[in-house]
C-alpha cells in the first residue's frame, strides 16, 4: 500500500490513524481518505461521557457503535477515548460529592462501555488531562472528591477488569516540551505503575503551533515519556497556524510535521501517530482558537497539502 499507515508499518510502527465520527466519515471524501490512509481510528466525541451516559446509567451507543462498525468493516484498529476527564462531562457526574458514589459511578461507566466493545479496542484513554499546565493536579470532580490521585487507581482497575486485552493509557496535552507538566506526568506514571496501577501506555496529544521552538527537540519529550516503560502514542496530532497562512508559515509547518514524525520513528517506544482530523474543513481548531486553522494534512477541499508530503518524509 501507499497510504500513511502502510508506509509507517513498513518501518515497524503500529499505525497512523485519525479521529473520526459519523459526522466526519459520513462525508464520502473523508471516508475514502480514511480507508486509504488510516490503520487506526479514535472517536472524536462519540465515546465521551456526555455522549455515552448523559444521565445516570442510561447509555447511548449510537454514534460510538457507528464508528466501531466503520472501523471493523474497514480493518482499522481503535483507540477508545475517553473516560475520566473534567470536560464533556455531564452535570450529574460533576454534582457527586462523596467518594463511595463516585467510585461506583466510575466503575459502572467504564465497565459498561468497555464490556460492550471488549476485544475491539487496541487502547483506551482511561484518563485524560489530569494535570494543570504548571504540573499540579487539575481540579475536577474526580480529584476534588478523592482528594488525591487515587481516582486513577479506581478507573484503571475497572478498565483492566473489563477488557484485559486493551492497553490502558493516561493521556494529556502540553507534554511537548520540558517543564513541570512533562516531569510530573512522567513521575505520576512511574508512581502509579510502582503501586500496581495498570498503566500500559502514555498519550501525548500534541496539539502544536507552527513554529513552536520545542518542535525541533520533539523526540526528547518522547524519550522522557519512554522512561515510564509504557508504550508511547501520539494521540491527537495537529499543528495549527493562521487560518490564512503565509508562505513562510506553510513551509514551517512542513518542517514541524517532519520533525514530529521523525521523533516517533527514532524512539522505539513510540507505537503510532493519530492525527486529529483529516480535512481542515472538519478540524476542531477554528472553533476553539480564533483566527487559527490549517492544522491538518488535507486542505478544506480535501487536497493533500505540503504537510502530507512532510509527514511522509518523516516516516
Ligand atoms: C475536541 C473535539 O475535536 C471537538 O469536536 C469537541 O468539540 C471538543 O473536543 N483534547 C482532547 C479531545 O482530548 O477530546 C478534544 O477533542 C481536543 C482536545
TrEMBL record:
Keyword terms of this UniProt record: Carbohydrate metabolism, Glycosidase, Hydrolase, Polysaccharide degradation, Secreted, Signal, Xylan degradation
Q: In which pathway does it act?
A: Glycan degradation; xylan degradation
Q: Does the keyword Secreted apply?
A: yes
Q: What is this protein called?
A: Beta-xylanase
Group of enzyme by EC = hydrolase
Organism of provenance: Orbilia ellipsospora
User: Which family does the entry's similarity section mention?
Assistant: Belongs to the glycosyl hydrolase 10 (cellulase F) family.
The record's Gene Ontology cellular component field reads: extracellular region
Q: Where in the cell is it found?
A: Secreted
**Lineage from the top down?**
Eukaryota, Fungi, Dikarya, Ascomycota, Pezizomycotina
Q: What is its EC number?
A: 3.2.1.8
Q: What is its main location?
A: secreted
Give the reaction(s) catalysed. Answer: Endohydrolysis of (1->4)-beta-D-xylosidic linkages in xylans
Amino acid at each position: 500500500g501507499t497510504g500513511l499507515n502502510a508506509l509507517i508499518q513498513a518501518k515497524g510502527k503500529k499505525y497512523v490513524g485519525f479521529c473520526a465520527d459519523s459526522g466526519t466519515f459520513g462525508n464520502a471524501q473523508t471516508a475514502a481518505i480514511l480507508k486509504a490512509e488510516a490503520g487506526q481510528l479514535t472517536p472524536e466525541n462519540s465515546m465521551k461521557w456526555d455522549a455515552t451516559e448523559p444521565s445516570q446509567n442510561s447509555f447511548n451507543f449510537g454514534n460510538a457503535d457507528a464508528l466501531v462498525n466503520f472501523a471493523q468493516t474497514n480493518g482499522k484498529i481503535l483507540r477508545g477515548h475517553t473516560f475520566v476527564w473534567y470536560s464533556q462531562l455531564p452535570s450529574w457526574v460533576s454534582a457527586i460529592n462523596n467518594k463511595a458514589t463516585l467510585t461506583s459511578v466510575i466503575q459502572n461507566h467504564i465497565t459498561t462501555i468497555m464490556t460492550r466493545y471488549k476485544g475491539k479496542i487496541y487502547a483506551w484513554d482511561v484518563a485524560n488531562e489530569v494535570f494543570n499546565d504548571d504540573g499540579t493536579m487539575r481540579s475536577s470532580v474526580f480529584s476534588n472528591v478523592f482528594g488525591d490521585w487515587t481516582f486513577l487507581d479506581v478507573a484503571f482497575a475497572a478498565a483492566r477488569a473489563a477488557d484485559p486485552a486493551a492497553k490502558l493509557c493516561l493521556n494529556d496535552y502540553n507534554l511537548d516540551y520540558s517543564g513541570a507538566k512533562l516531569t510530573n506526568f512522567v513521575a505520576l506514571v512511574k508512581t502509579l505503575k510502582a503501586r500496581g496501577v495498570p498503566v500500559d501506555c502514555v498519550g501525548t496529544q500534541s496539539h502544536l503551533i507552527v513554529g513552536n521552538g520545542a518542535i525541533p527537540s520533539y523526540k526528547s519529550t518522547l524519550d522522557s515519556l519512554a522512561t515510564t516503560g509504557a508504550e508511547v502514542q501520539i494521540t491527537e496530532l495537529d499543528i495549527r497556524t493562521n487560518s490564512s497562512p503565509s508562505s513562510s508559515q506553510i513551509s514551517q509547518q512542513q518542517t514541524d510535521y517532519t520533525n514530529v514524525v521523525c521523533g516517533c520513528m527514532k524512539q522505539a517506544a513510540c507505537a503510532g501517530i493519530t492525527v486529529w482530523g483529516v480535512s481542515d474543513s472538519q478540524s476542531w481548531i477554528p472553533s476553539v482558537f480564533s483566527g487559527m486553522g490549517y492544522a491538518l494534512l488535507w486542505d478544506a477541499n480535501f487536497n493533500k497539502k505540503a504537510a502530507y508530503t512532510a509527514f511522509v518524509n518523516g516516516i
